[in-house]
Amino acid sequence: MQHFPIFLDLKSQLIIVSGGGEVALAKLRLLSKTEAQIKVFALDPSPELRQAAAAGQIALHLRVLAKGDATSAKLVYCANEDADEDARVAEIARAEGALVNIVDDLHGSDFITPAIVDRAPVTIAIGTEGAAPVLARAIKADLEERLPSAIGLLARVGKRFRSKAAQLSPGRPSRDFWSEYYFKAGPGLVAGSPNEASAEQALERLLERHLQRKPREGHVAFVGAGPGDPDLLTIKARKELHEADVVIHDHGLSPEILELCRREAIIRAVERNTPTAVGCDANLIKYALEGAQVIRLKHGDPSEAEETTRVIAALESRGIDWSIIPGISVASGTVAGGSVFPALGGLGAEPLRRSA
What we know:
The protein is α/β, with parallel strands linked by helices. The protein has helices at 22-31, 47-54, 83-95, 133-146, 151-165, 172-191, 196-212, 235-243, 255-258, 279-289, 306-317, 330-333, 336-343, and strands at residues 14-18, 37-41, 59-61, 73-78, 99-102, 115-119, 122-126, 219-224, 246-249, 266-269, 293-298, 321-325, 352-354. Helix 5 (151-165) packs across helix 7 (196-212). It starts with 13 loop residues before the first strand and ends with a strand.
């Protein structure tokens, strides 16, 4: 990853655009959605830029950028459509402490502007490190079709409600509450064309239910990683990885699979110098008794492993709930380029499960 994605707080910050043509205007269409103060330096600005200045949307200076102009700027966009002028402006801006973007010059820029899906306050940034802007735009178009416009409304209401939701214990209780709002109760509100008042009332009712709910008991899921290709993980396996508090995995699993785990999850490899029955089993039991949702992530299909039978017996002796999410066998994975993909729908069958 050459370019690290971050979201800058631009409220009341100064952004400078150097240039007055179509390239500068294109950048301003995006920047005008922020709460930044925007200054434009251009000898011959387009009519649209003059109109924006007249409307008070930007501060327009009818000259080129000079030393001292970028002293308090956070970002400077060089959009002069002239390589020499862009280089001159970039040199001044960097000397005065600003981050510089030279339009259409990846290597000369300190940062790049990604393709953006705007459902404020939900914002999705899509970057290809300048390698494939057309691909980024295609992904943006696909996401815009999939995401309902009302998702921003739900997020705005949720943001205001966070102080009330702090009554819930941190960790799993809080995550369960917000997951139900955004993925169950929320989508129902979106379908019903809600307003912010009705969404807030629904959150109040949901919070009351969760405050009265008993803590979820610990659970261990044996999840099959298949032959190691993240594209061959089942939908259920991905869901478990997204939600787990603890993941204990075999050595040698691909980093791409482990990347699917929650950032906050505890992720541990099976201890090499400790017998599995002592180390791994003890950790699974320990975390589950503490109320964690635990995954034992194994190569291939865990239902075929002798270890799984032994660990299940240990879990049941302690009254711990468990389930098995089968994985694709290594043999099946070798034909992934052929008939495996059409068969993936069949892997959504209900996992093996035992409830304490």
